[in-house]
Structure formats: C-alpha cells, structure tokens
Amino acid sequence: MLTAEIIAVGSELLTPTKIDTNSLWLTERLNELGVELKLKTVVGDDPARLEETVRDALGRSDLVFVTGGLGPTEDDVTRQVAAAAVGLPLVYHQDLEDNLRERFRRWGREMPEINKRQAWVIDGAEVLPNPNGSAVGMYVDLGGTRLAVLPGPPRENQPMFNDFVLPKIREFSGAIVFRRRVLKVSGIGESALDEQIAPIYSAYEDVQTSVLFNKSEVEVHLRAAASTAEEGDRINAEIAGKIVEKLGIAVFSTEGEEMEQVVARILVDRGETVSVAESCTGGIVAQRLTDIPGSSAYFVGGVAAYANEMKTGMLGVPADLIERFGAVSREVAEAMAQGMRERADTTYAVSITGIAGPAGGTEDKPVGTVYVGFASGDCIRSLHLLLPGDRYLVRWRASQAALDYLRRQILKN
Amino acid sequence: MLTAEIIAVGSELLTPTKIDTNSLWLTERLNELGVELKLKTVVGDDPARLEETVRDALGRSDLVFVTGGLGPTEDDVTRQVAAAAVGLPLVYHQDLEDNLRERFRRWGREMPEINKRQAWVIDGAEVLPNPNGSAVGMYVDLGGTRLAVLPGPPRENQPMFNDFVLPKIREFSGAIVFRRRVLKVSGIGESALDEQIAPIYSAYEDVQTSVLFNKSEVEVHLRAAASTAEEGDRINAEIAGKIVEKLGIAVFSTEGEEMEQVVARILVDRGETVSVAESCTGGIVAQRLTDIPGSSAYFVGGVAAYANEMKTGMLGVPADLIERFGAVSREVAEAMAQGMRERADTTYAVSITGIAGPAGGTEDKPVGTVYVGFASGDCIRSLHLLLPGDRYLVRWRASQAALDYLRRQILKN
Q: Which of A95, A240, B278, B316 is the most exposed place for a label (fewest CB within 10 A)?
C-alpha cells in the first residue's frame, strides 16, 4: 500500500486560532485512491525547518504533499525550499510570467514585479496549472517517491489535485481503492448498536467498520477496499442494506446526511409542511430546517416561545395548563404543538419545552428535562427526555430529538 | 526565545473526519509563556515514524510535547517509543499500579491487568499526576531540551499542563511573556480599519498586531511581549483604549466576545428586553440570543415568519404591504419589527427579511438582499443590505447585522 505525508506551510497555522483543515479533504481523496496517510506536519515560514521536514518526508513516504507558501511575498518560501530539499535548481518559466501578466491585464491591473517570483519552477517538475489563482503547482517524480507542491487556498488546491494530481496517482496506485459510506442511527447507544451489527460487518474482511458516537447519534463508518470504485460502492451498499434490515427506522440516513436533510426530503417527497414551537431551544429547530436551500417548500414558520406570555399569547397555550403542570411539561408541549399547527396551518407541528441549564433545574425536573410535542391532523403526542450535557449539548440534543420524533411519527403513518 | 514542537499521536487524527485541536490550547498557553511554536506533527500509532519524529524534534527545539497514545492497549505506543527516542529504559512504578488499583476499586471495578502497562515510566522522568484519568504524564529534562508526554483527552491534558508543566517552564522561560487581546469591529472593512489604526499600533514595538477578517466582522489581535503578565495586559488595554477612542461604536467588543454576548450584556445592564421576527434567517438570531445562560432575563421570544401567511397571521403585517412592496422590503421589515414588539411586549424588536439563495433572486432584489428592521417605543427604522456569500454566509451575516443594528440603536439612545 502506498504511503503519503502532508506538510502544511504557514506561520498562521501555528497560532492558537488557526488550524490546517485542508489536509482533511486531501486525506479523503488519498484514501479513496488506496493511499494511506502516515504523517501530517505544520511548519511555519521557516526555511531550515521546512527543508528538513520535506527531506525527511521524501526519505520515508511514497507521496509527499506540500501545501501553501507559494504566494509572491518574501514569506512564501515553499518554492525555493522544496527545490533545495530535492537538490534541484529552480528554473525561470517565461511563459508563466507572460500568463500572469495577461491575467492581471484582464483584471485591469498591472502585474506587480513581485509576482515574477511565481514563475520559478523546480527543474524538471511538471507545472500544475491554477485557473483559480496566481500560484502554479509542481509535481516531481524522484524515481519512486513523488513530491506534489500545491497552493494553500482550498479553491485552488482542490481543483488542482482533482484535475492534475489524481490522474497521475491513479496510474501507479495499484489495484486497490477505498470507498467510504456513513450510516447514521438514532435512539440506540454505541455498544448496543455495535453488538447488533457486528455479526453483519465482521463477515466482510475487506471492509473496515467503525462505530462512533457523535453528539446525539451513532455513526457507522464503512470503508471498503476493492479493485474498483463500483465494486467498493456495491459492497458498502450491501452492508448498509443489511444494517437497515436489522435496525429499521432507527437508521435515519445511509448517506451521511444531517437529520434536517432527512426530514426535509421526507416532507418534500410527501408534499407536506411543518411548523415548530420552541422554548428552551429558542429557534434551533427552525434554523436547522431552513438551513437547506428550498426550505420554503415544507417550512412555514415557527415561534420561539421563551417567556410564558409567548406560549399563551402567540400559541394559545391555556395559562392554567402552565400553572397546573409547569411550562416544562408534557401537557404544555402538546398544547404548544397543537397551537402552532393550527396557527401556521401545517400538516405537522413539533414543539420543545425543557430546561437547558445551567440554572432552572429542580429535584423533580433537573437540567436536561425536555418534552417534545407532535401534532398532526389526527393525533397529538409527546415524548419525555432527560438529556445529558451542558447547555449547548442539551439544546442541540433536544433539537435533534424533536426532528427525529417528527421523522418517526411521519414514517409510522 | 524558547522554541517548542507539538507531536499529536493517534491514527484517528490521520482520518478525513478527525483533526488535532488540542494543540491550539497548548499553543496559546506556550505563547503566553513567551515560547514560540515552530512545528506541529500528527503521527499514527506507528512506532518507527513516531520515534523518528520525537528524536528529530528533540534535536532542534527546546521543548517537545507529545500528546496522546498513553492508554492501556497495544495501540498505545507513546510510552515505549518516547523512551526509545531519548535512549532511556522504562522503569516499573509499583506505586502507580497501586494507585490505579485503588482508583478502580473506588469505581467498584477490578483493575484490568492490561492497565499495568500504564505503570511504566521513562527512567529519571518526573511523573505528572492525572486526577482525571488513568494515564500519568512524564517530564524529562535532557539537559537543555525538555520532553513532556501528556495524555490526549483535553480534560486530562489541560489540567496536567497547567498544574505541573507550566510552573516548570516558567522557571527557565526567561523574562518575556506574551499576552493576547482580541478586539472585534463591525461595519468597516479590513484595509480601511488597518489604515485607521496602524498609526496607533505601530507605535508599540513590543506588540504584534494582526487584523483579520472573520465571516462578518474584523478582528484586531494584539500580542504584547512584556516582562510580566500585568505589564502585557496594561499595554494591550492602552492600545485597546486608543482604538476605541478612534473608532467609537464600531468596536463592539474589546474582549473577544461574540456579538450576541455583547447585546445580552447591554440588555441585562439596562434591564431591557427584546424579541425577534425572522424570515430568511429562520431563527438564527433567536437561537444566538438564547445560547447564553440566563437569556430569559432579556429574551422574550421570536417568530420565524417564513411564509407570508406567518407574517400577516402571527405578526400582523398588512397583506397589502407585502403585495405592494414585496415580502423582502423595507416596509415589511419595519412592520415585522413593529408587530413583533407589540405582541411580545418587549423594549425592542428586530426583524430580518431577505433572500438567502441560492434561488429566489431577481434583477431588482438579487440573492443577498436583506432588510433589517428595528422597533422601540418611540422609533421604527430599517437598514438595507446586500450581503455577499452563499446561503450559509448570507444567513449568518444577516443575523450578525441584525444584532449589530440592535446594539447600535440601543447605544445611540
């Protein structure tokens, strides 16, 4: 199996506020090609350390990617350092300068002389064109080990990889590709899920399966090794099918979608609409449902009924219900959903009332107590939850639970 | 100036879905101590590569941090690899085993034999206690170069650094500390801002200033080098004061706060309340205002009035206003704010109506057209914006603009 390293260049990536996220995308592409990432390094604009890092990487990995540091300023040291690391001179490419001048002219500007620095290329390297920026990339085959130097910005880096580097790797990356697929499951814990599906996935030797808990759901990551992408996808689909057969409605996505995307798809397919009444989540469910382009097809509106007066005034929750059972109660959740649905005239409504903390908990109703309500034309229901976590997590998990409750109620009909 | 490297260990950090964020916290602490981070590496559970990485790091940096890989399983190779890299044997600490057994017993469990692996420590290393987990840390002074091996989980790693590593570094880190301060500014571009404040910050030689654009605001990061923390804080405060004097109300925070925290503080200080009526943002403003603990003190409620029927039915926007001017108009924004404020009975109300895209734009009102409305007891106003970006960014920027408009209107009174 081929091994790779990624070296990200830039002093800003060594500050407390910035992180290299570029490499995540590149890792996924490499894995799909059957290449395993063995090391990631972040180096500042420090020629000595960068040269050492590139040289070390070339000594132990089949593929070395250097990203960033190709700009026109003094701080951009990648070009000369990469050349030094492979022991080759830089050569001036007049055609690159001409291209750059032409490009600046089209923008109605004169090319600053400093940009001539971007016309220097490692001797013998293949120039990788950059339609989205001024820095070209470089690809050098050092007899077995390959070095690819790519610009830092994702919108330059990613197309350059896809168009020029990927085809090259495919030529020698051998017979195996990796294909990923993510299933998402609600309402069942990590270990219980693993216990149920282990007999399914362990029958597939060429698939690496991981079961991960993520905030309020469990994800099943499949990574099939196969001789073609189609074969890998087929194996993943086969396992996904068996897991759905086993777990049923608990699997809310076999394509790695977010819960709101799944709910949106179901509503659009059925030509139905929804409205939401939220207390402790204060608009998270409405915001998630409207994150999706085209959400006006199914989302009519919502009320963030934080104060009790909002619940009575805008949703018609009877004040005596709040008095008798408390604002955080099954009765109020149901009245909120019912009132919301009537006022917005939607197929369904969901509601949330709860205690997100840190204050407001009591012995009877501790922080994390949440009621989710649901109303359709012919039924009103609710769900009682005790959610763990801090304010952020309780609110997030309540929103996820409400969307999942909506999904399950719709699918049960 | 002392230099440091951070090596994060774990194969999961080399997948497309996980990233090392631990190092950000550590970087900030190191910078505060006047230590500069020169390199970050992520290595998998691969003994040969890890040993090489640790050895290389010790050869060039004053301080080397290795985080993660201290668990009890076969995959956890950091302990033996770190020992090999410094050329020292591992020594068994019976007292650590006894402690672990005792700890498991308190949890009502038997210590698995595998955990005995966690009682091996590099010969001569100082043991760093871990009250929050089973893996102790190690600190080795190799005569000039120092190696600190810390567990991966932040809630183990961070207290261990603060309690045991930080005091040691302070002993030899010399006379200089770094102190950071972040100012946030709205309504002015990056270059225009820089032009205005450069004469202020360039007078301070020991302060490194960076001006960064972040989604919908500009941040000014100050990093003062000083002989004491107090002195550094004093210099930062002096510069912050001068910038506020120059820019006035445009500076919405001198403490790096989020816009919603600033608005919340202002409302709480004044004992006032707010409600929000949102169309294209579908609840983002309500959600942001309720993210903050204790938000019921100032937030009464909101309406996500996505469909026109919600605007007329729940906010009392006259239907003929929508017909004449369109749902995305100054008139409707103002009517939404006014209707919201009356219904929620709050000191202020803000509203948003706009076109977030990707569809829905026209020649007159392209994607990104947003109107923000404001209502108080004695005035109703609005703001017209044309926001750049995709759906996510338009929605985010609209929510930020609405909160900022609210802030400015309140402060102008």
A: A95
CA-nearest residue of chain A to B52?
A: A56
pLDDT at res. A269: 97
**CA distances from residue B339 to A174, B336, B374 in whole angstroms, order as listed:** 66, 5, 11
Gap from B38 CA to chain A (nearest CA, Å)? 6
Is 3.40.980.10 the CATH number for B3-172?
yes
Using the predicted structure, report yes or no on whether residue B175 has a pLDDT greater than 80: no
Evaluate if residue B271 carries a pLDDT over 90: yes
- Cβ of B6 under 8 Å from any chain A Cβ? no
* CB contacts, 8 Å: A342 with chain B: none
Residue B302: strand pairing partners: A304, B276
Span B139-157, average pLDDT: 94
CA distance linking residue B257 with residue A358, whole number of Å:
20
The Cα B321–Cα B304 span in angstroms is 19
Test B60 with A39 for CB contact under 8 angstroms.
no
Q: For position A45, what pLDDT does the model report?
A: 84
Report residue B173's pLDDT band, with 50, 70 and 90 as the boundaries.
Answer: confident
A42:B40 CB<8 A: yes
d(CA A302, CA A278): 8
What A219-223 contacts at long range (C-beta under 8 Å, 24+ apart), as own/partner pairs, is A219/A182, A219/A183, A219/A184, A219/A185, A219/A256, A220/A182, A220/A183, A220/A184, A220/A185, A220/A193, A221/A180, A221/A181, A221/A182, A221/B17, A222/A180, A222/A181, A222/A182, A222/A183, A223/A31, A223/A178, A223/A179, A223/A180
Token representation of residue A60? 């132990």
Q: CB-based contact (8 Å) between B59 and chain A? A: no
pLDDT tens track for A332-357: 999 999 999 999 999 999 999 999 99
Question: Buried (b) or exposed (e) across B247-280, using 16+ Cβ within 10 A?
Answer: beebbbbbeeebbbbbbbebbeeeeebbbbbbbb
Tell if the CB–CB gap between A303 and B314 is shorter than 8 Å.
yes
Beta-carbon count within 10 A of A361 CB:
15
Q: Where are the domains of chain B?
A: 3-172, 177-253, 259-412
Closest CA to B10 of B65, B76, B57: B76
Q: Which residues does residue B121 pair with via DSSP β-bridges, in sequence order? A: B91
The angle at the Cα of B93, spanning B90 to B95, to the nearest 5 degrees, equals: 165
Q: Taking CB atoms and an 8 Å cutoff, what residues of chain B touch A345?
A: 309
Q: In the CATH scheme, what is the homologous superfamily, with its name and number, of domain A259-412?
A: CinA-like (3.90.950.20)
Structure tokens at B2: 């002392």
Whole-number pLDDT of residue A354: 98
Question: With contacts defined as CB-CB under 8 Å, which chain B residues touch A276?
Answer: 304
Q: Cβ separation of A294 and B359 shorter than 8 Å?
A: yes
pLDDT for the residue numbered A109: 83
Q: What number of H helices and E strands is found in chain A?
A: 14, 17
Separation in Å, CA A251 to CA A217, A264, B278, B283: 10, 16, 33, 28
Q: Give the A:B interface size as CB pairs under 8 Å.
A: 207
CB-based contact (8 Å) between A361 and chain B? no
Q: Does domain A2-172 have CATH number 3.40.980.10?
A: yes
Residue A162 touches chain B, beta carbons under 8 Å: no
Residue in A49, A180, A303 nearest the CB of B303: A303
Q: Mutating which of B274, B314, B395 best tests the A interface, going by the most A Cβ atoms within 10 A?
A: B314
Listed by number, the residues of chain A in 191-250 with a beta carbon closer than 8 Å to a beta carbon of chain B are 221
Strand order in the sheet with A380-386: A380-386, A369-375, A348-354, A274-278, A299-305, B299-305, B274-278, B348-354, B369-375, B380-386
**Residue among A16, A38, A306 whose CB faces B49 most closely:** A38
Please determine, looking at this structure, whether the domain spanning A177-253 carries the CATH number 3.30.70.2860: yes
